[in-house]
Specification:
The protein has 248 residues and is an alpha/beta fold. 33% of the residues lie in helices and 17% in strands. Helix 2 packs across helix 5. The longest helix has 14 residues. The chain starts with 14 loop residues before the first helix and ends with a strand. 40% of the residues are buried.
Length: 248
């Protein structure tokens, strides 16, 4: 399986991207904690062999998606793909799209790379870095067809709510990265976070709720082992689907 060089896909900062404010985002407050999960030998081998081809190094300059993927197909970004189960399944079923996965958990990156190899999935690239910095520095404005946020950390304790990813002003950054007609699709099994996110996204400039409230389940989103564990604990899965104003 061959792919364009990831180094050739990084452009230079334009005047607009250089001048863009961070909108008050505190980059010292992270939405994740690096877990010290065990990396299996297969995950380690996959990472060592395939990361030069599929993992894009973080840089403070915008990506050229056409150069990165070798085509001009629409790009969907997934933030926090975990072990990559849904990412691999969706990408394999939708060869007409490209998928950019953002994840900091090394075993998860290795597992997704293993899936890419085993299933010959050519339309995935990965950035192993903090999603806030990636969105701010590497994603051009108006460039994404969609954004997936499947089961982000709910940070249930009130004192940790500041760490929740789905909140303004970060949602405004995400909205600015979507092209007209683009969508933001979030799924969570934590009810308090679902209502929090619904309010934050509804108040985000440029986004409109496609369902008026919580969305109907999308039949193209595969279930994952993480989701099934939540259902076994009687967690209610909530889905949110917002679109960029002015699109079709």
């Amino acid at each position: 399986m061959s792919s364009p060089s990831v180094d050739a896909a990084v452009g230079t900062l334009t005047d607009i991207e250089t001048a863009e404010p961070t909108l008050g985002i505190n980059s010292s407050i992270k939405s994740y904690v690096l877990r010290a999960g065990r990396e299996t030998p297969a995950q380690r081998r996959s990472y060592d062999l395939l990361s030069p081809q599929f993992v894009v190094p973080f840089r403070e300059s915008p990506l050229d998606f056409a150069a990165l993927f070798g085509n001009g197909k629409p790009v969907v970004m997934e933030i926090g793909f975990g072990m990559g189960e849904a990412t691999a399944a969706i990408a394999a079923e939708n060869p007409g799209n490209n998928y950019l996965g953002i994840e900091v958990y090394r075993p998860g990156v290795g597992r997704l790379l293993w899936d890419i190899s085993q299933r010959s999935i050519p339309n995935i690239r990965i950035v192993e870095h903090d999603a806030v910095e990636v969105a701010l520095k590497m994603i051009p404005q108006g460039s994404l067809a969609g954004i997936h946020l499947f089961f982000p950390d709910p940070w249930p304790k009130k004192r940790h709510h500041k760490r929740r990813l789905v909140k303004r002003p970060f949602t405004e950054i995400l909205a600015s990265r979507l092209r007209p007609g683009g969508y933001l699709y979030m799924v969570t099994d934590w009810e308090d976070y679902a209502h929090w996110a619904l309010e934050e996204l509804a108040a985000t400039k440029g986004l409109a709720n496609a369902y008026g409230g919580f969305a109907q389940p999308m039949d193209w989103r595969p279930s994952t082992s993480f989701e099934r564990k939540g259902l076994e604990k009687k967690h209610a899965v909530k889905e949110l689907y917002f679109k960029v104003l002015g699109g079709v």
